[in-house]
Amino acid sequence: MKDIFTVVAGEMQKDASTAEITELIRTQISRRRFLQATGVAGVGVASLCIFGCGGGSSTASQPRQVFVANALGMVVAEPTLCVGCRRCEAACVGYNEGTSGSTIVQPSIAKVKVNRNISFGTGGASTDFARGDGDFGNFRTVQDTCRQCPHPVPCQLACPHDAIEVIDPVNARVVNLDKCVGCGICVAACPWAMTSLTGLVNQALTHATKCNLCAGNPECVQACPAGALKYLPWTDRTKDVATRQTVPASLQFAAGVLDSCSKCH
User: Fold this and answer.
1) Per residue in 144-193, pLDDT tens?
2) DSSP SS3 for 186
3) C-beta separation of 175 from 208 below 8 A
4) What angle do CA 170, 198, 230 make, to 5 degrees?
5) CA distances from 149 to 118, 128, 172, 191, 264 (A)
6) How many Cα atoms sit within 13 Å of 163 on the Cβ side?
7) Domain boundaries in the chain?
8) Pairing of strands 229-233, 73-77
9) How many Cα atoms occupy the beta-carbon half-sphere of 133 within 13 Å?
10) Would you give the distance in Å from CA 131 to the centre of its chain?
11) Distance (Å, rounded) from C-alpha 39 to C-alpha 45?
12) What's the pTM?
């Protein structure tokens, strides 16, 4: 990858790609370096507004995202077709984390959740044993997928580090690994428990992981041999899908979010 300021000063004035512009936005730079770059690339910086990629960085010139656009798509599951092979989990982790082998050791890091529902369904052993989904019930395997929540997005607004952003090309809610510190607050904030940590809380290599829709071409959908997962236009399914966990009452919006909300509500 070329130096980002070379892109700004040169190629961006010609025909810079959206990916390069997005990388510029997500790159943390000092005010001095910003002025150095924009002083020779005014046209390029003006292009940021045209592409509309901004809103993900909590700086003085670019406040954190609060009200965000709806996602353009979502992964929808059909449990009656699922055979429980977990190829979707392996494909997801292989694509996003670099190794599908870790799916067996740590299935929770997959962004589509199948393993946790195979035996007893979404209600767990205490609720679904012999009465609900799963191998110990009606043999139906439920695949949990991210709802790509509309505003207010629970995980995004709870993150104290503004590490969950809404980005192009499909407005997916994506974890910015450069900002995430692995605190786990987003994990507790999701009513459907669709956000996970790759390790122990606040450890050096730990980060949050959630569905990013693979830029509109989800790997899990491609890998499913039974056609049990589909990528469809987004609809709000937060009301028609039962929640999986209770969000702690002590969990609050991140600093700065309430002040922003008060301007509209």
Assistant:
1) 999 999 999 999 999 999 999 999 999 999 999 999 999 999 999 999 99
2) helix
3) yes
4) 35
5) 25, 26, 9, 11, 19
6) 21
7) 4-51, 65-249
8) antiparallel
9) 19
10) 33
11) 10
12) 0.71
